[in-house]
């Protein structure tokens, strides 16, 4: 796979005097377990954040012709809740309701759907969930347009999917509320108190990759996440093992393609868990200089259309054979 665009070699956005280390805030190197905190790209009123100014530069760096798309994509952020039906549908078969909700989500545009029970660890530090379940939703991006990353073509495709995700979250939450059960659609283009990736992993959408983003069997990394939280009785899915680590432990595609060299070759200790991690202080300035970058997502071998299912099957079979 070859990207159509030539990536700039250096970031053009940076602090003369960096306000803090994002790696320190994220807990890089910490072996004691703790929850995540707000760092960047957040719409939550959590007070001033160290990288607020860089976030503002990023948000206002897009060309004017993309402004309508950005406003549309933010729709779910401003319409997260709504009227709850006075008549609650009694749920006697949670499995049947789960199937119906997944079908509704796909009807509204979701490519992949998973469900998990919410835990406090899926929220930032100091927050508690008001809901019992999370519905994780993945929406694929146009692969051909994303191969132009980084640039206007790929940035507009990301915004198009964010718009679609906004309508999806608002529509699905509204549908659940019409059944008389509380539901809230979460922001799709920014952070909230809920953490999309841990929720999606718990819901069986995919696994964390070396590039710090989710990899799913259906779309690789070429998709975006969104989430709806609810009290509607549902049946939770389980985390999946599709063989991501079997590839990421030896594959160098994303780390070699990353212009700021922000991707670690090995898993790191982060807030008490050893996992894949991307250097915030190296990645974020470049991310803000290139309309959201995303090179690592598209060079990932899992992102080749149609490759994921066969790749996963071969990797898991090889692992089984080696263990016998």
Report on this model:
Helices cover 36% and strands 11% of the residues. The chain has 324 residues and is an alpha+beta fold. A hairpin with a 5-residue loop joins strand 4 (207-208) and strand 5 (214-215). Helix 2 runs parallel beside helix 11 (280-289) and helix 3 packs parallel to helix 7. It starts with 21 loop residues before the first helix and ends with a helix.
Structural class: alpha+beta
**What can be said about the biggest beta sheet?**
4 strands, antiparallel
Q: Say how many strands there are.
A: 8
Overall 3D form = globular
**How much helix is in the residues?**
25-40%
Model regions low in confidence, pLDDT < 50 over at least 5 residues: none
Write down the oligomeric state. single chain
Continuous helix count: 13
Give a short overview.
This protein has 324 residues and is of the alpha+beta class. The protein is built from 13 helices and eight strands.
Which properties best describe this structure?
two-stranded antiparallel ribbon, 8 strands, globular
Element layout with pairings:
Elements: H1 22-26, H2 52-59, H3 67-73, H4 75-78, H5 94-107, E1 112-117, E2 133-140, H6 143-146, H7 152-178, E3 183-185, H8 196-202, E4 207-208, E5 214-215, E6 223-230, H9 244-248, H10 253-257, E7 268-270, E8 273-275, H11 280-289, H12 295-299, H13 308-323
Antiparallel strand pairs: 1-2, 2-6, 3-6, 4-5, 7-8
